[in-house]
Amino acid sequence: MGHDAHRPLNPLNTLEPLNEAELEPNMTDTTDLSARWTARLTELAARHSVPGANLGILHRGELIAEAAAGLANTDAGIETTTDTLFQIGSISKVWTTTVAMALVDEGLLELDAPIVSVLPELRLANEELTQGVTLRHLLDHTSGIDGDLFTDTGRGDDCLEKFAALLGDGTPNHPLGATMSYCNAGFTLLGRVLEVVTGVQWDELMRERLFRPLGLTHTVTLPEEALRFRAAIGHLGDPPVQAPLWGLMRSAGPAGLICSTPREVLQFARLHLDNGVTEEGTKILSAEGVTAMQTPQVELPDPYILGNAWGLGWFLDTWDGQRVYGHDGGTIGQSAFLRVLPEADLAICLLTNGGDTMSLYRDVFAEIVQELAGVTMRTAIQPATEPVAVDPADYVGVYQRLSSRVEIVERDGGLVMLDRITGPLAELTPDTETEYELHPVEPGLFVVQRPGMKSWFPVVFYTLADGTPYIHHGARATPKAV
């Protein structure tokens, strides 16, 4: 539905060269493309030390290629197939957002009404935050709630309720609406809001509102459901070794516990390409809701790694003049990537389980968008090639929030970032302390290389409107403490 507009009516009357596959899709073409991408994915995964990878490409409403490479579990020797379930991590946030926006359509929620209007027992770090935080703040990561609270509140159906009750103990990492800081805890709170307004527990709500209407058979939220299928496990380190834990605690569900395959993630993406209507014609979300999710809400202090703005659920970018929306996911040793180019009617999903996943993502997606959309992917950020005048005094200090203590020190005429994971998150991470050399790009902007990765990751120094110095790194805002 809605895809014919992208196909030229008269192939002889277009400047775009067409091949037989574009004129008459058939099983052979799809099989050939899948075979080609299986070989290419196998080659690239090996190059970037990625144990296992799963890829799907949706173009003009058709799943035109699926590919799997490597091992889903290196210790057990389990091969990856296109039916292997991977953890899609934070891509789950867009699924939770989609259900929230459907409830906005139905009048059960309002984007700009205080959350306390539906959750009167809510107590956050201070009264301003408690009374002021709205659904919009949660969906675009501007609430100021410290997002990396990973407290295990058990396996019961009340885990989100128990988690929401803990949020009053935290300290905001920025004033309400003052900047963007990636917020897992805000999505767990959102999950609780959805439970209260529908009377349906989050896992069941996902099945009821998305999995069943979309006809998904290999998409689950709970480990006991994933056990019914071939399921990948994460791998950590360089070279990658099997992670000691398979998954996160149940309360992280709305923020990142969906497991799926590229094929079924792309069924979800197609829902957004088709204005909220399923392949069978069931309306899940209004066209207005779909558009709102893709409308910029807040510019990102770091526009170099994910996108230049956040919408509602999606992050937003532009590649070569074309709109892109998407989301990434990272759990314990698993990384997931989803990008949608609406003008090209193209969506790509890559699911992985360790190694240099960012380099694999860039290589795979760059080839696909060039071949199918004629689009050049945005160039990755690099250190400056010429010297940059840097006054260390502008940056040196300690920047701190719940799960992170970042110290910037001067060493041998340059700057070094000492990054320590703290709080409950530290219990889930084998290496809690990492040291990075800061390479300048321009004043206020540096890049670092993470262990085992070739890509550069930005570190942005900036100030809020009230003058408070901040670092933005890993999509999180961290205030200067000392």
Q: What percentage of the residues does DSSP assign to strands (E)?
A: 15-25%
| Through-space gap between termini | 56 Å
Overall average pLDDT:
93
Q: Total number of helical segments?
A: 13
Instruction: Describe the sheet with the most strands.
Output: 9 strands, antiparallel
Structural class: alpha+beta
Radius of gyration: 22 Å
Uncertain segments: 1-27
Q: Could you estimate the helical fraction of the residues in percent?
A: 25-40%
**Form type:** globular
- Side-by-side strand order of the widest sheet: 3-2-1-13-12-11-10-9-8
Strand tally: 21
Q: How does the SSE layout of this entry go?
A:
Blueprint: H1 20-23, H2 27-47, E1 52-59, E2 62-73, E3 78-79, E4 86-87, H3 92-105, H4 127-132, H5 135-139, H6 159-164, H7 184-198, H8 202-211, H9 223-226, E5 235-236, E6 241-242, H10 253-256, E7 259-260, H11 262-273, H12 287-293, E8 298-299, E9 309-310, E10 315-319, E11 322-330, E12 335-341, E13 346-352, H13 357-373, E14 397-401, E15 404-411, E16 414-421, E17 433-442, E18 445-449, E19 456-463, E20 469-473, E21 476-479
Antiparallel strand pairs: 1-2, 1-13, 2-3, 4-7, 5-6, 8-9, 9-10, 10-11, 11-12, 12-13, 14-15, 15-16, 16-17, 17-18, 18-19, 19-20, 20-21
